[in-house]
Design brief:
Largest sheet: 7 strands, antiparallel
Number of helices: 7
Oligomer: single chain
Order of helices and strands: HHHHHEEEEEEEEEHEEH
Strand content: 25-35%
Shape: globular
Helix content: 25-40%
Length: 292
Amino acid sequence: MVRLMKTGLPLRYAKAAAIAAVIAAQPVAASANIIDTFYERSFVLAANERCRLFAPGVTSALTSAALQARGAAARSGANDVVLGETAARARARAARTACNDPDLVVVRGRVTEAFSGWTRTPRMSFPGATASWSANRSAFSSPTWRLMQASSTGASPVTFGYAAGGGQAQDLQAVVSWFGRPRPYAVRIVMRDADRAPRPWLVGQGVLPPEAQRRVIFSSGGRDAAPTLLSADKSNGQAWTFPASTADALARLDPREPFVIEFLFRDDSVARTTFEAGDFAAGRAFIAMGSL
């Protein structure tokens, strides 16, 4: 099979490779060809940005697939330089491809056919190195996790992600059920600041960069959590909501990087729980297709 990134041949000779990569609706496994897959999905996505090839739902599905491939490439060992160069080559080829190119028209039809089915997929898991993001687009009358990752601090379970439903807007929040602790007075997320420290921090599992390279985002407030957002064995808990800009900051992290949620108590103690950035960006694009 001919790969786009390895040849300078016209699109018609590499069309089969591009279609084969983008129609995969499952999580991408790390392999020797994962960089090629990332390239091919990025190429079709860049062509869509120029030529408006796809409907919004298909665009969201394709965006999720491209981000998923990027995450798999990073976990397989590709560094940010290689990923950046690969994406740049894909954009450059898309810029040289006419919107009315006959072979691009064929690709458009094949991708639309493949991903129109994916837009009707209600649930998907986005595995990471040590943790996963679970996405759910099903519509419920009560608040439900749309995109979530589970962790804990001590014996207290913590869930973080997007929740919506039951008349509530889609919010990014952390839900915690405390075991033997009072309610904290503030909650914050700590992560690498991509503006001050552009390179990923991959020193060790759960290790954050030095304080000067960190970004801290405080919750905008807390409330009692909806029972449907609690862990299965819990009857009460608190939900702490974060500003919308938090999602963009998380999406800029390397999939292998951690971020930490810290709960601040009035006795000056701090309870911490670690999450993995993983394919958060891919999951966010998946739920952007809307509820089913």
